[in-house]
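explain this.
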Amino acid sequence: MKAPTRFAVIHTFFVLFALALVARAAKVQVVEGKQWAARGKRQHFFASGLSAPRGQILDASGNTLVESREMTRVAVALPEVRDTAFVLKALRHARLDVNALNAAIARRRRWIELPGLYSAADVASISKLNGVHLTPVLQRVYGNSDGIKRIVGSLDGRGNPMNGLELALDSLLRGDSGRVSLARDNNGRALDSPDGWTDNARPGSTVVLTINNTLQDIAERELTTAVDSLKADGGDIVVMNPHTGEILALASNRVGRTSFGNTSVTEPFEPGSTLKPFIAASLLEHARARPTDVVSTHNGKLELDGRVITDMHKSAALSLADVIRFSSNIGIVEFGKRLTPREKFETFRDLGFGMPLGVPLPAEAAGTLREPKQWSRQTSASILMGYEIAVTPLQLVTAYSAIANGGELLEPHLVKEIRGPDGKVTYRAETRAVRRVMSGEVARTVQQMLLAVVQEGTATRADLATFEVAGKSGTARRTSQNAGYTNGNYTASFVGLFPGNDPQYVVLVKLDSPKGLHYAGGEIAAPVTRIVLRAALAARDAALDREALAASEKSVLAEEHAESRSVIGARFARAGRSDATDPVDRTSYDPSDNLTPREPADTASYTIELPTTGTRVVTPPAARSPRAVPDVSGLSIRQAVRALHGAGFRVRLITAPSSGTSPAAGAIAAPGSLVQLTRPAD
């Protein structure tokens, strides 16, 4: 056989090599084509996550409380910088902090992130510089109010929610992140790819709160003033619409410590005498008492279960209405004996005490309400006076709203509605009654008792000249760590219904450990309530129905009527007068020790209106029996007012087609009851 020539061998080799190349190319392009294309794409293109703008948080009127703004983070890659001096000059001209850059250059760092975030306009002049890298980021911008921040919460440096609504509603606010495809040049620098955005981010939903920003500002301002003036450890103000359950304001203030949550829902307190109206309502609801029923109040001192309970307003006997009006500890304990421990427990349980209300704020406290089987021998009396029970300010306002709206406990709302990125409403809060806790008739009766508290009782400093205010003050001793109840350490509170005859607000003012000469809720918390109400009336938008409010204005009587406002023979002046002799709510006591509350000192000077006279003790006389409304037909208006006042009744003048009184002449009514005197229209 003839041996192949050298040319044939070389030719055969090239043919085989060509076939191998073709085979390899076919394998790469046909069999492994997608795999190699993906590898090349990974080398020249990369996908970057795109943060979605968090949704806005608005107040009830549409004012922005929280929003996201697109800002820019600036970084410098030193190896890419051709002229360091020129870049430094450009950064300085753009008002960026170049000190950090100089320090990094001195340490020979290759990648430097400048501190702070900048708007696109601020960094537009340096966007084309070699070595300068701009990264868009989203910054959360909050309102200036610290109180609003305690409601809405905040984010950490990585954009993760830490507290408040930002945490509770994170799944709604954060939206859906997108992805963007970017190309890299031969030096690895990012370029916009031809494909552009591959998956757009979906912004978060907009959350509209029930908070009224104007009312919130008023509450925060007046709370700060009160805390500073009274040198208190802190305080809370809560405002609610009693007919819808909408929370209109949540202000909290703590001195000397940072509070990231809103203490109106996180810190329970012993409410003291502000719980007494609910006991009165339970007695009426169970038909165990009438407003005119009288019990012995033992001249202001009662020994019970190894301790002494005292009243500041000493009297031999008081009616149920007067027990509320003068905040009698002994009276409420005596009336409370008509209720079983289970009935007392169920009264407070049905009002929502001892359980969270379910508002979308983290760390909401349930408060403390123990089962009767866990009560001590003294609990049955203590709980009637607001001790051995703890409630949050929001729980107490929600319970008082039941008195204001006719007896229904409503679910409180903080979120009014939620809107998707397209503006479509995906959720809208609706008024929901949890349960009926008292009949409409009982609610109206208790409301009248609360009117008397402000008109002639322990909280006259909450009264307004043009509108009725109803409410109840409370003064509870506070505990110190490992020391129990301590002298001179009180919680002063007042819960007000405004207007008193047709409430649009329920307002709670609570002050913790006020320092100075006065500490009672009727003296220091009630005036703050009045100031808040005055400011709300003067504001343009404070969630008030002005038309309904106009129908609630007081009827103004003759001068002698203003000077002769009396109840059970005791005369009280309106708040703010230098000669005021209004009563002081002294219902505090030590549940474990015998206690006589301390008397006020001689003088006081505060930015909040406080009494300027010396120690006062207003002693209501023993309760008098109900009597008939006198017949004033044929008398002049002035004479009729005198006759009704002389009989021990309060008088309101109204205009109607015919004259007369309501209740009618001869009707039996309790002394101090309100009698409407009708005069014909002109």
